[in-house]
Amino acid sequence: MDSVSGAAVSGQDHDREAVTGNIRQVNRERILQAATTVFADAGFGGATMLGIANAAGLPKANLHYYFGTKQALYAAVLDNILTVWLDAADAIVPERDPAVALADYIRAKIEHSRRFPQASKVFASEMMRGAPLLKDFLAHRLRDRVDAKVAVIEGWARQGRIVVPNPRHLLFQIWAMTQTYADFAVQIAAVLGVETLGPAEFAAAGDTAVTLILRGCGLTPPGVPVPAPGSRQRVETATQN
Amino acid sequence: MDSVSGAAVSGQDHDREAVTGNIRQVNRERILQAATTVFADAGFGGATMLGIANAAGLPKANLHYYFGTKQALYAAVLDNILTVWLDAADAIVPERDPAVALADYIRAKIEHSRRFPQASKVFASEMMRGAPLLKDFLAHRLRDRVDAKVAVIEGWARQGRIVVPNPRHLLFQIWAMTQTYADFAVQIAAVLGVETLGPAEFAAAGDTAVTLILRGCGLTPPGVPVPAPGSRQRVETATQN
DNA sequence: AAGAAACTTGACCAAATGGTCAAATACCAC
DNA sequence: GTGGTATTTGACCATTTGGTCAAGTTTCTT
């Protein structure tokens, strides 16, 4: 049921799965939502149960009723996040054209950063702590997943359909390029001189990432010709600066 | 003197700069070092003065004597970090060959992640909090710096020496690709199946990043020919998996 | 309707935390 | 040496924090 920690769902639970009315589900969801935001902004250590309770619009004791401890609530938040985490990589399958597959993957990751920045931050925060609750997930579920995707990429490479320096690091760097737009949104916004990152910025981010990675893998980005350096040309700017 | 916050150097300071013996300097340094580590692992909210004191091997009251408050100590840590932060970009100047300049820049950034992972984490942590203490730095010092480097890159592009989708996002993504090896070290180590990231892993990371970015900018990575896709070849793996 | 189970919540508690202080000690210029 | 300044540090304090609890209210089940 919970893949993060034995303490994730805690306390006085004896199989209330869907037995009880939906009050339970609704409240849990509300709390998880609030907790995600607070953990994202303050980290595990900086977040307070009172803060989360206020964000959720519920008395603090209520959180403890549903999740037992702060740790368990945190674990539940992580669990919630991980489910969505791996899915984007579904784009990478042997049958597809490498360029299309990678482009889709990158765009999906960027979209994820745009839609769920808090989730990304919580994950990042947990990594920086040393991932005490996710070590296992990383070393097994994620690792296996990566191995599978690496196999696909190496397959493409053997067929001469892609040129990749190091498939594993390629993935790491795609993750980095895309997650940065969630975790470092303030920095990027400040440098771009905008209040917050909007659709225009994310579009430019996606275009740049796709172009860099595809070219980087010896592929031609759709609609973006790659003239040989030496021929006169100007910066191919996208939507905005 | 301090660029982060008016409260960075606080309390009972009236210009002791280098007046007093070096006890002051030595202790401040020792505390800053310990604080950097603790803030990196726990974030601002999760770090405790007692924890930092223990890490520094000093009584807690001593930290308050030198830095006044937790906030001020944190600000001092950030300040310390920022100094080093911008320097790597010195590689990017108009006269240099774009390929060499970018490769140097990327390798310097990766090296920074390898040598000062805690600094990187503290910075990342501050960004995720919304950068309450660095908003100003980001919007001015960093922004100006970026504008300058973007101008250089656009200059190269006008001369047809480089093909870049969006210079600003190119920089963001180089930052991301390189910092990820500090901030997400546990994740990467777990996926690679190693205990910690060593020289071999950082070498592979650097090679991959340089290759991807240079090719991505229509440049040829030194020593790494880019065969046209379609020609038979195998994965060009570097040092290790 | 009635009993049971699920849910709510204000009041409370012990521990931890940031911060203060004053007494003691080390250091230094003359 | 001696007086003054800088440094050290244990003891102390107010506040915050995670967590508990028991008395109440609501919601199901039969």
Structure notes:
Two copies of one chain form a homodimer. Chain A is mainly alpha-helical. In chain A, 64% of the residues lie in helices and 0% in strands. Chain A is built from ten helices and no strands. The longest helix of chain A is centred in the N-terminal third of the chain and has 25 residues. The interface between A and B is large, with 81 and 82 residues. Chain A binds a DNA duplex (30 and 30 nucleotides) through helix 1 and helix 3.
Write the layout of secondary structure elements.
The structure is a homodimer of 241-residue chains.
Chain A: H1 22-46, H2 49-56, H3 60-67, H4 70-85, H5 98-115, H6 117-128, H7 135-158, H8 167-183, H9 185-192, H10 199-216
Helix pairs in contact in A: 1-2, 1-4, 1-6, 2-3, 5-8, 5-10, 6-8, 8-10
The structure holds a DNA duplex (30 and 30 nucleotides).
Q: How can the largest sheet of chain A be summarized? A: none
Q: State the helicity of chain A in percent bands.
A: 55-70%
Spell the H/E element sequence of chain A: HHHHHHHHHH
Identify the most extensive interface between protein chains. A-B, 81 and 82 residues
How many strands in all of chain A?
0
Overall CATH architecture of the largest domain in chain A: Orthogonal Bundle
Number of helices of chain A: 10
Task: Give the CA-CA distance, first to last residue of chain A.
Answer: 46 Å
CATH class of the largest domain in chain A: Mainly Alpha
Q: Which structural class should the secondary elements of chain A be placed in?
A: mainly alpha
- The global form of chain A is globular
